[in-house]
C-alpha cells in the first residue's frame, strides 16, 4: 500500500493512521508538530526568519526518528508531502481533543473487517480456526 496513489485526503487518511499505529510514534509527532508551530509563531512575533528555517527540523526530526526506530516504516512525507503535512495537523488536533487513539482503533478495525471480508480461500474463520 505504500506505493498506492491517493486521489483525495479521505483516501489517504486511513493509510496515514496505519503508519502511526504506535502511540509513542504519535507522541513524538505531537511534540515535533507543536515545536514547529512554536517556531513559526516565534518567527512571526519576533520577525526572526531563522526560526522559520528551524521549523521543519524541529517538526520532522522527532517524527522521522519515530518512523525509523519505533514504527519501522518510512515517513509518508517522502511520497505524499502535502497530504502528510495535513495528516500531521489533523492528528495533532485529534490528539489535543484526545480522539486520536479511538481513530487508530477505528481505522485498524475497518482494516481487519475488510481483510476478513476479502478472504478468497473459501474458508470461514470462527474464533481463529478455519472451517470449510
Brief descriptors of the model:
132 residues; mainly alpha; two-stranded antiparallel ribbon; elongated; disordered C terminus
Number of DSSP strand runs: 2
Task: Supply Rg.
Answer: 18 Å
Q: Describe the biggest sheet?
A: 2 strands, antiparallel
Portion of residues within helices: 55-70%
Going across the biggest sheet, name each strand in turn. Answer: 1-2
Globally, the shape reads elongated
Fraction in beta strands: under 5%
- The total of helices stands at 5
Straight-line N-to-C gap: 30 Å
Pattern of helices and strands = HHHHHEE
Which secondary-structure class do the elements indicate? mainly alpha
| Low-confidence runs | 122-132
Arithmetic mean pLDDT: 88
Question: How would you sum up this structure in a few lines?
Answer:
With 132 residues, this protein is mostly helical. The protein is built from five helices and two strands, in the order H-H-H-H-H-E-E.
Describe what you observe in this structure:
A two-stranded antiparallel ribbon has the order 1-2. The two termini are 30 Å apart. Helix 2 crosses helix 4. By secondary structure, the protein is mostly helical. It has a domain of 80 residues. The chain has 5 helices and 2 strands.
Chart the SSEs and their pairings.
Elements: H1 9-18, H2 23-46, H3 49-71, H4 81-96, H5 100-117, E1 124-126, E2 129-131
Antiparallel strand pairs: 1-2
Helix pairs in contact: 1-4, 2-3, 2-4
Amino acid at each position: 500500500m505504500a506505493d498506492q496513489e491517493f486521489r483525495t485526503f479521505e483516501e489517504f487518511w486511513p493509510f496515514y493512521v496505519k503508519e502511526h499505529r504506535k502511540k509513542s510514534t504519535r507522541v513524538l509527532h505531537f511534540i515535533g508538530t507543536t515545536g514547529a508551530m512554536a517556531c513559526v509563531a516565534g518567527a512571526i512575533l519576533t520577525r526572526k526568519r531563522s526560526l522559520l528555517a528551524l521549523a521543519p527540523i524541529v517538526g520532522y526530526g522527532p517524527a522521522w526518528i519515530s518512523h525509523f526506530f519505533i514504527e519501522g516504516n518510512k515517513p509518508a512525507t517522502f511520497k505524499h508531502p502535502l497530504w502528510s503535512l495535513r495528516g500531521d495537523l489533523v492528528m495533532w488536533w485529534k490528539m489535543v481533543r484526545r480522539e486520536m487513539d479511538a481513530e487508530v482503533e477505528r481505522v485498524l478495525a475497518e482494516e481487519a473487517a475488510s481483510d476478513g471480508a476479502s478472504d478468497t480461500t473459501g474458508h470461514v474463520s470462527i474464533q481463529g480456526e478455519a472451517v470449510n
